[in-house]
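Example record

The entry below shows one chain as it appears in the dataset: sequence first, then structure tokens.
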Amino acid sequence: MSQNSPSTPSKILLSTLGLLVSLGIFSTYLYLPSLPSLGEALSVSKESVQLTLTIFFLGFSWGSLILGPLCDRIGRVAVAKIGLIIFIGASFWCAESSNIVNLLLARFLQGMAASTGLLVANAIGRDLYKESQLTRFFSTLMIIVAIAPVIASPLGGIIESYLGWKENFYFLMLFGVFVAFLVWIWLPETNVYRKKSSESSIIIKNYIILFKKSDYGIFCFIIGVQLGAIFCYITLSPFLFIHLFGWTAHEYGFIGAYTALGNIGGLFFARYLAPRLYFHQGILIGSCLCFSLSLLFVGLCFFFPLNPFLLIIYVLFFFSFSALVVMNASAGAMNLFPRMACTSSAMVDAIQIGSGAFGSAIATFLPVFPLALGIVMGGLSLLSLIAGLFLEKKAVILN
């Protein structure tokens, strides 16, 4: 941590960064209750509607990779402002789309723009903090951000029930305007290395440097499989609850709030354990819990009839345990490169949201059935557990 950096970030800074990161979360959760009706309005299939999520994640991932080195060159604030301007315009384009092709193009651009929020927030955290303080910073920030689905999902259900799917995107446009106002006034520039970066930074070279450290690649893999499982559920969930279980869009909107509670619990747990555990230990504990829970859920699906509340309980705890994994893996990856914070963050963000596209794509091939979801989430958790065991083995050898 730099000498001028406080051990605890200010409430204004945390709030601004939390809202920046929430651009991506609101863009995902707000319109989930509208997915079934959006397909009817545009006369397209379930798979085409789910593709609007996949394409958003792809845009987010590409945006992180392209804008990360730029963030190291010209600074955090400039990239945040550029992203917000594009986000506002893309949200308006989404609302005015009259066919699926236009909506897909607008969602891709919206994803690229939303990536700047997570990118800038992660980089500012790495500029100011390191090691256990970095994990605590991420956990504190993510606790604030985890409140976003609690608000976004029910709000999206209400907007869908009373106004329609277009109004969800108009809301995102106004939300972007509000966040832009805060960024223009309060966001500080924290990149003290930007002059050096502008002289010598080469995009491809920097990304190659990241993966020369094998631990960085393993951290990214763990993030990818864990969030792949999460986004597989997110993409399939509207059809599970609305089509399979017969819930209304309004009722489904509150599911996101319930599952977000699990994420918040996991983040508090990660924050509490940060001074007590190494990164690899947190990953190993969380991955083991996710895999064990998935095995239990799959077993219960064989012996009990379809029950939406069993699925809610499973996802609630899975989100909690997964948060412990993702926070430690993200902090571990970021901690390796203090002078390439934004480039490192860009790759972490790209892996995070790229895995969202991966998980979303898996969901389009799955039957709308809880057992299939449990098998996929359990399988991805097993991969995370294996990678965690490999990190643990490396740590034992080094010590």
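Notes for this example: Residues 131-162 form the longest helix (32 residues). Residues 1-8, 197-201 have pLDDT under 50 and may be disordered.
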